[in-house]
Structure formats: structure tokens, C-alpha cells
Amino acid sequence: MTPKILLVEDEEKLAQFIQMELGYEGYEVTVTHDGLSGLMAARDREPDLILLDWMMPGLSGIEVCRRLRSTGVSVPVILLTAKDDISDRVTGLDAGADDYVVKPFSIEELLARVRAHLRRNQPQEVDGLQFQDLTLNRKTREVMRGDRSIELTAKEFDLLDYLMSHPRQVLTRDRILEEVWGYDFMGDSNIIEVYVRYLRLKLEAEGETRLIQTVRGVGYVLKD
After folding, report:
1. What is the DSSP letter of 123?
2. What CATH number should be reported for the domain holding residue 61?
3. Model pTM?
């Protein structure tokens, strides 16, 4: 399922930029530009995460957050604001926000926080993944292409697991490095290309169709 994100931001240029970046990451994004519309969209659209500007016409982001929490809506909320005092942070968190990003912010930081909160909100991880005739079992660490068993190294398995967990989503090289190798990876960034090549050789060893596709200049996607 593609995660649904509601962005409530009255600065239209900023909202357009954030929407574009989120869409590029594979999220389904709904945008509103004032608090009341944001409140209605949160109830109608049932998003998986809300990005909520603090200062808006009509209802403020703080008031929107309070009203959502008072009606039992538990979706993660990240406040976007220029307010940076400790008292402001406390106010935001007391209103029910899960996180707080101060403007101006790095889009990479915002995307990382979005991913972190979506991960925490995901249901318990399943043991098995399947895409077309490719199956992966997390408990036994077995991989099958049709009836053929495929032996993978630990890191090949982790990379395939990550790709299969995000089917049909274009995954950037930076995101793959972050999620599979970790923030502290200091090696050659070409490591991803090397491991993708290893995976393709093993997954296509008997002439099977290619499932790991290259998106030139961006990264990779698992698709038909």
C-alpha cells in the first residue's frame, strides 16, 4: 500500500515543493492550505501521516492537532514551524504532535523523519514477501524464483528484502544506502550497483525476466 500523507501548509510555493519531493519518494500526497480544510481532509482522507504548519489562516496547526487528538485520531503529526523556543516545542508536543521541524529545514531531514514515523506506525512485519514469481522468507532467509532456490549473501538478502518491501517505488541510491547499509556507511557509493549486479545474476540465472530496473540518474525500482 502506498502511504498517504496530508500536507497542511499555507505557503503555496513551499507546499508545492514539499508535495513534489514526497511524490518523488513514492507517497500519495493531499495538500490543503488552511487549518479548517486540513482538519476536514484529515478526517475524510484518513492519511498515514500529517505534516502540519503551525501558523495558518483560521485554525492554527496547534488547534487542528488538538481537535484531531480529542476525537481519537492517532495518526503521526509532524509540525512545521518557524517557532524555535523550548516553550513552543513543549506547546506543540503537549497538543499531541509527534515531532517538530523548524523552518527553514533540509528536505532530506524532513523526508527522513517522515520515513521514521511511518515505520513506527506500520503493522508488525510479515515473515514472507512476494513479487511476481519471486518469494522471500524472512524467518528462514530463503529466496525462491518460481521453484528455483537462490542462495544469497547476508547483504544481498537485505537489499532484496528492502526492494521487495517497496515494490514499484523508485528508491534513490541515498535512500538505499541509508536503509540497507546505514547512516554511518563510509564506503564506496558504487556498492549499490555492485550488489544490484550480483542480485540480477542470481535472479536471472535461468533466463527469467528482469525485476530490478534501473532508473537512470536516480536509483532502482522493483517492477515488471
Report:
1. P
2. 3.40.50.2300
3. 0.57
